[in-house]
Structures are given as C-alpha cells and as structure tokens.
Design brief:
The protein is about 25% helix and about 25% strand. It is α/β, with parallel strands linked by helices. The N and C termini lie far apart (about 50 Å).
Length: about 325
C-alpha cells in the first residue's frame, strides 16, 4: 500500500493555512497527500470515502487553530474532524498535530474520551512569518511515513504527468479541490459541520508580497465567468463579493456537482503570496480552489491542485 498523508482541518479555524500547507506537502510528496474532495468522485458517499482515506493513510496531519477547542463540536460524535482523528487514533495511525495561528496544544482534560490520545502527540508549529522554516520541519517529521521516490524516478514522473493528466480526467470526473484554503482555507472560514456559526473571515490581503509578481493584475472582487474544458467541462458564474462572501449561479457540467457538493454560497479568500483563490461552502465542510497563473486579453488562466486548467473572465 502506498504511503499517504491525510490532512484534517476546520476551515473556520485554519483559514489561510490549510491550502498553503497542502500545496507545499503536495510539491514535496506528489500524489501522496489527501485533503478535501480532490480524490472523491461525484456521487460517492463522501463520509465513507473520507473514512476509507483515513484508514488507508500512513499518517494523519491534524491542523489546529486558536478556535479548534471552541463550541460544542468536540463533543459531537458526527463531527467530521472528530471522526477523522478518532479513526486514525483507533487504528494506530500516527497523528501529527500542526498548530497554526499561535494555537496551543489541547490537554487531555479538554478532549473527549476518544480524542484524549491526541494530547500525547508531539506537535509542529507553523507560523506566518516562519512559514518556510516551519514547513521544512513538518516535511522532515513526515518523511519517515512518506518515503519519496528517487530523484531520477521523480523526474520521469514529472515529465510523464503532463501526458497522463487528460487520461486521469477522463477516467474519473472529480469534484475539484482547490485549495488554500488554508484554507484554509483550508482558505476562507465556513464551518466544517452543520450547527456552529460561521467565524468572521479575515480581510483579503490586498498588498503584494515581497518578490511576488502581480503583472497580470488579478483583483478577485467581482463577478466571474469560470469555465474548464475537456472531460471535466463546465462553467459557472462566480460572484466574489467585497465582504468575502461568494455566490455560485448558472452552474453547468462539472460545476453543477461542485455547487451541489460545497454549496452555492459561502466565503472566499485570495492569498497574494501564491495567487491562490479558495472558496468554501457554508456548512458543507468542503471547498474548491485554484491558483491564478496568468492573463490573456481580458481573461485570467488558473490551475487547480490536480492540474486541471480554468479560465476566469469578468462577467458583464
């Protein structure tokens, strides 16, 4: 069985981090990181699929933010995050807590009975100012569980991936993850499970990061016609509002499944440091994301974590 990592997180707790952490881990361990709906086919019971992914993972990465302990979710046996972590602990799958936004490690007294073993796991801290250094430490912690192929083999994988992408899309029409979220994601801040109220989303970063090229001048606020072609063909009207809420309408093809799965309304974030746009549905616990990669005429090109290309055109 191939070594894989499962990322467990709450969107309203680790916004702005989850997607970035996923991307960095995916770059280091290609095709070995599971998060959100990137590996779940349309029409499949996502709870059963997620539980299967947890059971077949060799390590679970649990993202914990400052609000992870708040509310009644820790006592909710049906809460997806609780189920993911409890399932990993029950199956002796290593769990690596990752503390973001200055969060502290929860004590055993604060956790439900089935989550108490989590308090005995060594954690890795990931901060904004020290993100690169902290991700190096996290990658080092995961390496024993995610053995990477040799450099020579990996070069062949990279070279071949462009040729097999279309075949993968044809063989499995997927709901597409994006992601930044971190999130988070993972992104903006919709609740990962029904019940808890939506935490306020941070304002989008409107100042360019040092060394980041914004020559194609993408500004997310507004109405966008989003489309993709090939086996995953579809289109939708995506309204990114100033208050960081979004609304999907006129969804066609693949985007009908996306809207139905994550929800037609929710919140969004845009991370200028990596040009990642993430939308997260309110209450669904899942999101959709892409990275803006360029501009041609009046349209912007983008790509999802699975390599699927999108076009965003301002809607009149």
């Amino acid at each position: 069985m191939p070594e894989r990592a499962f990322i467990s997180y709450r969107r309203d707790d680790t916004s702005g981090y989850a997607g970035r952490i996923y991307d960095r881990l995916h770059d280091r361990f290609p095709n070995q990181i599971f998060m959100d709906v990137s590996g779940i086919d349309a029409g499949v019971d996502f709870v059963e699929s997620i539980e299967h992914e947890v059971r077949t993972s060799t390590v679970l990465v649990a993202l914990i933010g400052k609000h992870w302990l708040e509310g009644e979710r820790l006592a909710d046996a049906d809460d997806l995050v609780n189920r993911e972590i409890a399932l990993a602990l029950a199956n002796n799958i290593p769990v690596v807590p990752v503390l973001v936004r200055g969060a502290r490690m929860p004590s055993a007294a604060e956790l439900s009975e089935r989550l108490k073993p989590l308090a005995r796991r060594n954690a890795v801290e990931v901060g904004e100012a020290t993100f690169d250094r902290d991700m190096t430490a996290l990658i080092r912690a995961l390496q024993p569980r995610l053995r990477r192929k040799t450099t020579a083999n990996w070069k062949w994988v990279v070279a071949a991936s462009a040729f097999v992408l279309l075949a993968l899309a044809i063989s499995s029409v997927m709901l597409l993850k994006g992601v930044g979220i971190p999130s988070v994601s993972p992104g903006p801040n919709p609740s990962p499970s029904p019940g808890p109220s939506l935490a306020p989303s941070p304002k989008p970063d409107v100042s360019p990061a040092s060394g980041t090229s914004l020559s194609f001048g993408f500004e997310p606020v507004g109405k966008w016609s989003v489309s993709t072609g090939g086996a995953t063909a579809g289109a939708m009207l995506l309204d990114l509002k100033q208050d960081q809420s979004y609304e999907i309408s006129n969804a066609e093809g693949t985007f009908q499944q996306v809207a139905a799965f994550i929800g037609s309304k929710g919140t969004w974030t845009f991370n200028r440091s990596d040009m990642r746009l993430t939308i997260l549905g309110t209450g669904s616990g899942y999101g959709f994301g892409m990275r803006i990669t360029g501009k041609q005429n009046n349209s912007f090109s983008a790509v999802g974590p699975d390599g699927i290309a999108y076009t965003l055109t301002p809607a009149l």
